[in-house]
Write a structure and sequence with these properties.
This protein folds into 2 domains: 34 residues; 179 residues, no CATH class. The chain contains 3 helices and 12 strands; from the N terminus they run H-E-E-E-E-E-E-E-E-E-E-E-E-H-H. The strands form 2 sheets. The protein has an 8-stranded antiparallel barrel with strand order 1-4-5-6-7-10-11-12. A two-stranded antiparallel sheet has the order 2-3. Strand 10 and strand 11 form a beta hairpin.
Length: 285
Amino acid sequence: MRLSSLPCFSALFIAFALSVSAQIEELEIQEIEMKDTTTATTSSNQDLIDKLQGTWSSKSNQVFTGPGFFDPVDELIFEPSLPGISYSFTSDGFFEEARYQVVPNPQDPSCPSASIIFQHGTYSFASGNNSLMLYPFEVDGRQLVSDPCNDNGVSSYTRYHNIEVFKWFLVEFDTYHGCMRLDLYEYDGSPVQPLYLAYDPPIMLPTVTLNPTDSADSSSQKRKRDFNGSKLSLREKLKKQLENKYKTNAKIPIQNNIFGLENHAVLVWGSMISLFVGSSLFLLS
């Protein structure tokens, strides 16, 4: 009885061993496939990054990212000569955006409104569909809005933060313009105006938080700081202001005035009166 049952147990043991071996082989195959998928995804993302790298500008060729568009030290946005948009991308996952848009007024063509936007931060690709995701540094974004017929000549300068999602994008050589072209498509599939490669490597401000604060809602009245966060000396401030003097036509509203005179006028007239009184006292003595 016992001897006759040995072949049965042997067969069961062999079947069990074969089943375990098959499961181990299947797990090894799945692990190899996962590694291949990860490698392929990494390689695919690197290909996308290589294609995006550079500074791209719209057809007006007047709007570019970098220090020529925004000065974070003096909080100055330099108005380009023509509307347009520009994006820059680095190979290590950073982006910068410069945007100058003019919106016509159908009811009064002489009263268009305009907005100038600066943002920078990091970017990544969504897993599965390779959508382009832009994540700006929340405290660094700036927006200048001008509505000359309704704002009494005073533009609105505020913080700006907007996460952008592009459903897909395409980079190809434009035979008509003779350069690489970047086609971006909004989250709903609507196309953005074509962008053309202007610089590679890209022209950008430092890829760090330029205006570190405790909160993005902090007051805009703050001390000017350099890119390392240290206070600027008076010499550096004067140099920076002289460099930027003729780069923008923006005017700082005069907060304090005396007898309807602006601050500099008060200083000039005060100096002249003091000089006259001092000279008179000297001559009379």
